[in-house]
């Protein structure tokens, strides 16, 4: 039970955040809406990585590897933004 | 395990079809891959033959416009995803990585078999595309053509590539874990054979880039099937986003194709020169540098696509920077050969032709990376010639070099050296006759993907097609004498070329579990010269 409980908690938290995303999209418009939905999505991803993907139990090397993956995503998004922002 | 069973070779260990189709032996899976990618090599080659026959005359007399589009699309899709990307990693990588690092198998043998089955499922989808009439978007699947207008089997072709992508990811993952976890005692990172370094760098790209392609294909399907606006401006999408995502995978994919070839050449050059590789650390490090830089240059495919000029300038600079690690390799191979005791064996001739063609392909890549020049030659035969020099002149030459070099190890039979030398020479000549005229054609303004062209281009096109027929025959030649050698070739000793490396310490063909006792490494790699007790002379007669 002790291993299931955190998973269920996080699952519930993810559903709550999903509700928050839907709510925010109804209330907010434009840039604030974008910022809110991206922030909530980031939080959800962090929960998944930390709990479901077991990063909280891993050593430093694994965490650095995971950060490396984030860095790779930033390369893709960074250059995309470079193009979009200066077109 | 008794001594007797340990010495049974992997080829002798079971002869039933089941013992092959359910094997988890990395060596047998390598053979399965070898057979399947050879099949696709000839299917893709047949499409190329149709293209070159059609281009003999300025008019469209062999194929309709639609048919021509389908022929070059199929040629590209099959050659890129079903031959070039799996070619060296999945055959020679599979066979050699465990042998070279002193392991009994890859880290996940069953995953390895699964990845072959996934490859075959993707292959069946591709055959289905072929049978159902093909697809006409080009191998790049550019939107909005692919998502809105193309009337071929776009979804089916995208599915084939989506599926085969998982084979790539699993193979890459398997190699990464294997190199990290299964090196034998004493096999430190600084002692890894350069082929293993290059396969490791390739695997990083396979794992990091392929998922982006998969997602992009899913997005195309979502737009085409459900009208979800991602790339179509009418639906609020952006067509340039497609090109960003596609090339974020597909430029690194070029390095998936060339990096293993660079690793093969490092092995062939060291063996041919019988000298330690000059600047081992730099050659190894340049593989990693190419893998990383490869992720930062994709925008050079979009210089005239409406991309921001600032972005283009950055992409241009970084593309030119790739020349540095590539140059390191070429100079270090040259320095390795300097004052070497060179043996003119077939693998060495393939390595020499690789180096020459790779330099021409690389230098013309620099021309294409220049912002101003690219405007003139973009989407012309200059580009076609450039990437064929890298992928065919480079990767396929290295593939055949590897095939000749490791054939005695894999099959336990020697190959006829004279025929090997002849086919290396014919492939080199046929290749240059095919593709050098295309540089001139492109510079004069012949656009790619057209089959009707002005009459003044005909001479160069005829030269190119003549070269293609020489090249086609030259590619068939090795398969005839390699098959012949299986029955009539002399028995191969463990180390026929007098090479260093753990794979040459075991019998040819290797026993089922590679090493009876796991080896221990106590020195740097490439400790030439090797004493083989006249074995080389005895084997070659
Ligand atoms: Cu590129």
Automatic annotation (TrEMBL), chain A:
Keywords from the named record: Cell membrane, Membrane, Transmembrane, Transmembrane helix
Record-annotated membrane-spanning stretches: 33-52, 64-82
CC terms in the record's Gene Ontology section: plasma membrane
The keyword Transmembrane appears for this protein: yes
InterPro entries noted in UniProt: Caa3_sub_IV, Cyt_c_oxidase_su4_prok
Domain of life (superkingdom): Bacteria
Membrane topology: Multi-pass membrane protein
Subcellular location, record wording: Cell membrane
Pfam families from the UniProt entry: COX4_pro
Protein's name according to its UniProt entry: Cytochrome c oxidase subunit 4
Organism: Nitrospirillum amazonense
Lineage of the species this protein comes from: Bacteria, Pseudomonadati, Pseudomonadota, Alphaproteobacteria, Rhodospirillales
UniProtKB/TrEMBL annotation, chain B:
Family: Belongs to the heme-copper respiratory oxidase family.
Annotated source species: Nitrospirillum amazonense
Major localisation: membrane
Origin superkingdom: Bacteria
InterPro entries membership: Cyt_c_oxase-like_su1_dom, Cyt_c_oxase-like_su1_sf, Cyt_C_Oxase_1, Cyt_c_Oxase_su1_BS, Cyt_c_oxidase_su1_bac
Protein's name in the database: Cytochrome c oxidase subunit 1
Enzyme class, broadest EC rank: translocase
Gene Ontology annotations for the cellular component aspect, listed alphabetically: plasma membrane
Alphabetical list of NCBIfam families matching this protein: CtaD_CoxA
GO BP terms: electron transport coupled proton transport; oxidative phosphorylation; respiratory electron transport chain
EC numbers: 7.1.1.9
Keywords from the named record: Cell membrane, Copper, Electron transport, Heme, Iron, Membrane, Metal-binding, Respiratory chain, Translocase, Transmembrane, Transmembrane helix, Transport
